[in-house]
Design a protein that fits this description.
Layout: H1 3-22, H2 29-36, H3 39-45, H4 48-83, H5 87-242
Helix pairs in contact: 1-5, 2-5, 4-5
């Protein structure tokens, strides 16, 4: 096995080991979050995306090279088998085909597990953040509940104290309220008396105006009668002159 495929095999075994460790049930996501927050990992996180993309590209190149090798030696294997050459050459081609297939599986599984590893770490981080936020919200809810209970107890104590104090002051407040209401009633009565006086005065003035208008109407009727009499007398005098 060449150096590059030895490195790919070691990388694959490392991926399998890391994924198995990440899937251990007794290590919680919060513990992994604390591990990921170590300064060493924080420094590596800056180059994590670049490293991830670089390894993806390398594994894709190796995978495509392995596919090419498998196709090449598969075609040669068929041709050599059909030509019925000697056994040593056939075995050599068979060995090349086996190695190319092995390299194909190594690169393919390395690429797949690298993506799975990235996704697993992302899910663990999100789960840890969700658990931390849930714990914080639960703490806030508990604090709010305790504060509400405390405020309710204090409110009840204040209401009891006010009810005790208010029982002694209720009579005084009632008397003060009665006095205030009496003053308002007297004020309203005075206003009503003023209004009634003003209305009576207005009625008297209206009655006087009616009487004056009736007197003026009688005077007008009397003057009209005198005017008609004078007119009749003038007409009679004119008739006599004409005769």
């Amino acid at each position: 096995m060449t150096f590059q495929w030895t490195a790919v095999a070691a990388f694959l075994y490392g991926e399998i080991g890391v994924i198995l460790v990440l899937c251990l049930p007794f290590i919680s996501p919060l513990r992994w979050q604390k591990i990921f927050m170590i300064p060493l990992w924080s420094k590596m996180a800056v180059f994590w995306n670049k490293m991830f993309l670089t390894i993806i590209v390398l594994l894709i190149v190796l995978f495509l090279d392995a596919v090419r090798e498998v196709r090449k030696y598969s075609a040669v294997h068929v041709n050599e088998k059909a030509a019925s050459i000697n056994t040593n050459a056939f075995d050599h081609i068979q060995m090349k085909l086996f190695r190319s297939q092995r390299n194909l599986y190594l690169s393919g599984f390395s690429l797949f597990l690298w993506l799975v590893l990235r996704r697993t770490i992302t899910l663990l981080t999100q789960l840890a953040k969700g658990m931390a936020s849930h714990a914080a919200l639960e703490t806030q809810v508990n604090d709010a509940t305790e504060a509400a209970k405390k405020y309710m107890a204090e409110n009840e104590r204040l209401q009891e104290a006010l009810s005790e104090k208010g029982s002694g002051k209720s009579k005084e407040s009632a008397e003060a309220t009665d006095k205030k209401l009496k003053k308002e009633v007297e004020h309203l009565k005075a206003e009503l008396q003023k209004t009634s006086d003003a209305l009576q005065k207005a009625n008297n003035e209206v009655t006087a105006v009616k009487k004056q208008s009736e007197g003026l109407r009688r005077d007008y009727d009397h003057l009209m009668k005198e005017y008609e009499q004078l007119q009749d007398s003038l007409n009679e005098a004119e008739d006599k002159k004409d005769l």
